[in-house]
């Protein structure tokens, strides 16, 4: 991978819709070259977010009480909550790459980070003629540990990835994650038998050359 140093911004728990407002401002600043490429690490209170193609049948039963919020990113339904590390990537794409190329780079950097956290992981190739398969899976158990949904506007990316570190996995079973009825979600703690959010933040920052 080519070097791509990022400026690191860190927060704790940020309301999803407030985070979207701030991310939009960060994207506009990057489009105007008013700020450098940025990795923003944070977490959200419990919320399901849905992409434009999410099927109604994939949504959770409203009786569970977790909000469902439409979003402009690619991908389908995902869950955010405490114990999950979200990374928003506000990056100006190079002239020779598109957003899919960058997503593939993001996957590889996350595989590297997970190895440092004691979780052998892999990205998966998309079968010919199929919808883009994004995210990171554990190599030994075949469970999904990172969800990815991104878009680009005026050559600048937004949204990013969500790594399950040490949070409650129960909400994932209330809906169809990532448009994949058979997917089983997992976390660093579940796979490695240990780990912490502080360690995950450090390792992710290193993998993305962010400081």
TrEMBL record:
| UniProt cross-references to SUPFAM superfamilies, sorted A to Z | Class II aaRS and biotin synthetases
UniProt keyword annotations, A-Z: Acyltransferase, Cytoplasm, Transferase
The record's listing under Gene3D superfamilies reads: Bira Bifunctional Protein, Domain 2
Q: Which InterPro entries match?
A: aa-tRNA-synth_II/BPL/LPL, BPL_LPL_catalytic, Octanoyltransferase, Octanoyltransferase_CS
Location in the cell reads: Cytoplasm
Q: What is its EC number?
A: 2.3.1.181
- Work out whether the entry's keyword set contains Calcium: no
* Entries under PROSITE patterns matching the protein: BPL_LPL_CATALYTIC (PS51733), LIPB (PS01313)
Metabolic or biological pathway, per its Swiss-Prot or TrEMBL entry:
Protein modification; protein lipoylation via endogenous pathway; protein N(6)-(lipoyl)lysine from octanoyl-[acyl-carrier-protein]: step 1/2
The active site lies at 178
* Class in the EC hierarchy, top level: transferase
Q: Which family does it belong to?
A: Belongs to the LipB family.
The free-text function statement in the UniProt record for this protein reads:
Catalyzes the transfer of endogenously produced octanoic acid from octanoyl-acyl-carrier-protein onto the lipoyl domains of lipoate-dependent enzymes. Lipoyl-ACP can also act as a substrate although octanoyl-ACP is likely to be the physiological substrate.
| Name listed for the protein in its UniProt record | Octanoyltransferase
The gene behind this protein is lipB_2
């Amino acid at each position: 991978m080519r070097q791509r140093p990022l400026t690191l911004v860190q927060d704790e728990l940020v309301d999803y819709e407030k985070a979207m407002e701030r991310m939009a401002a960060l994207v506009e600043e990057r489009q105007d070259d008013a700020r450098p490429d940025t990795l923003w690490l944070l977490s959200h209170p419990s919320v399901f977010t849905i992409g434009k193609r999410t099927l109604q049948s994939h949504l959770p039963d409203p009786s569970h009480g977790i909000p469902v919020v439409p979003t402009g990113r690619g991908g389908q339904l995902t869950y955010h909550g405490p114990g999950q590390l979200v990374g928003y990537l506000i990056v100006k794409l190079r002239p020779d790459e598109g957003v899919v190329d960058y997503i593939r780079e993001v996957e590889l950097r996350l595989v590297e980070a997970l190895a440092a956290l004691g979780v052998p992981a892999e990205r998966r190739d998309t079968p010919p003629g199929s919808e883009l398969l994004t995210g990171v899976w554990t190599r030994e158990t075949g469970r999904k540990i990172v969800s990815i949904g991104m878009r680009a506007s005026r050559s600048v990316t937004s949204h990013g990835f969500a790594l399950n570190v040490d949070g409650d996995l129960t909400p994932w079973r209330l809906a169809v994650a990532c448009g994949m009825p058979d997917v089983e979600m997992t976390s660093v703690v579940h796979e490695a038998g240990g780990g912490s959010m502080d360690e995950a933040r450090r390792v992710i920052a290193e993998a993305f050359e962010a400081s």
